[in-house]
Structure formats: structure tokens, C-alpha cells
Amino acid sequence: PRRPPDLILITDTLISTLEPDEVIAVFAHEIGHVKRHHMFYYMMFAVGFLPVTALAALPGADGGGGGLIGELLGLAWLLAVPIVYWGVGFGYLSRRMEAEADLYACEVRAGVFDFVNALEKIARTSGKQRSAGSWRHFSIERRVNFLINTVGNPAAALTLRRQVRLLKGICILVAAIAALTLVLFLGVLGTVVAS
Predict the structure, then answer these.
(1) What gap in Å lies between CA 11 and CA 18, rounded to an integer?
(2) How many Å apart are CA 127 and CA 99, to the nearest integer?
(3) Rounded Cα distance, 193 and 195, in Å
(4) CA distance 72 to 63
(5) Residue 88 DSSP code
(6) Taking the CA atoms of the chain, what radius of gyration do you get in angstroms?
(7) Do residues 10 and 27 make contact, with C-beta atoms less than 8 angstroms apart?
């Protein structure tokens, strides 16, 4: 069977703001996400979160405290873990995947300057400060500096690649642990229900 095509969306505003070579550079960045299989690793990261709710539902997951204190501990678990896992963990992963896609765009376009110019125009058009990062993206300033630094310093790109390769391995490991944990959880749950 044939695999469905990957979709890449670029807005009319982006097309009207950027020069054609800059649009192609942005498009190359989006292709970088596809070529580097970022969605697959994001899904593996998401799968890794599934046992958190399963573990919270296990008998004794309240720390054995029971009563109000046990319920508060269980609630704290259910609130704190998602914030750390998604807020910190996914943000860390996503920013590095974005940097990998930036690097891919520059490599397939044989230079950084079309993409750097596109980033600078996007920053100006959006009205955000160049130094303002976000949960999923490094700041434009940091992205531009990194890309310009890689022009004469291939070691910078190699360092990023190693980080991303390690993160991808962790995503696979977390998903495998999640699958194993869920299998064990279903076994424990079956035993509890049967007794």
C-alpha cells in the first residue's frame, strides 16, 4: 500500500513577505522535519507519557497515605509530572528538532543566508523581539547565530547532530518502557479486578 503524502503548509503572508529563495529555504526547513522523521519521534515521546496516568491509577499510587493526604499526593503527581514531561521535556526536544530542521534547510540550499534572511524577516513581521524564544523554538537571534557559526565551524553542527541522535534514542527508549509498563499495568489491573 502507498503511504499518504506528507503535507507542508506555508501561509500566504509568508509568501508575500519573503523573496522566492527565502520561501524555498523555509520550505526546506519544513522538509527537514519530514526527512529527519521528527513527527515519529514526537509520537514516541507522547507514547512515553501514557504510563504516567496508568501509574497514578495503580492501587497504592497515593504513596500509601490514603485519605486526604493520599489524594493530594496523587493530585500533585497528576499535575507536576505532565508539567515537567511536556513543559520541560517536550520543549527541550522540540527546540533541538527545530534546530536540526534549520540546519537541514541550510545544507540542502547550500548556504545559510537565504534562511537567515527569512528568519529575520519573520521576526520583524511578527513584531516579536529577536531575543524572545518560545516553548518550541529557540529565539530568532539564537537560531541565526547558530547557523552563522556553523558556516566556519562544522563541529557546531556535529554537536547538534549528536544531541538530536541521543534525544531520538531516548524517545524510542521511553516509548519502549511505556509499552512494557502498560503491559505490566494491564496485568496488575487484571489481577486486582480478578481478586
Answers:
(1) 11
(2) 21
(3) 6
(4) 10
(5) I
(6) 21
(7) yes
Determine the Cα–Cα distance for residues 3 and 46; give it in Å rounded to an integer: 22
Name the residue type at position 134.
Answer: S
- Which amino acid is present at 23? V
In the chain, alpha helices (H) = 12-17, 20-35, 38-47, 50-57, 67-82, 91-108, 113-126, 140-151, 154-194
Structure confidence by residue, pLDDT tens digits, 65-120: 566 776 777 777 777 888 888 899 999 999 999 999 999 999 887 678 999 999 99
pLDDT tens track for 18-48: 999 999 999 999 999 999 999 999 999 999 8
Q: Are 138 and 93 in contact (CB under 8 A)?
A: no
Nearest to 141 by CA among 124, 156, 154: 124
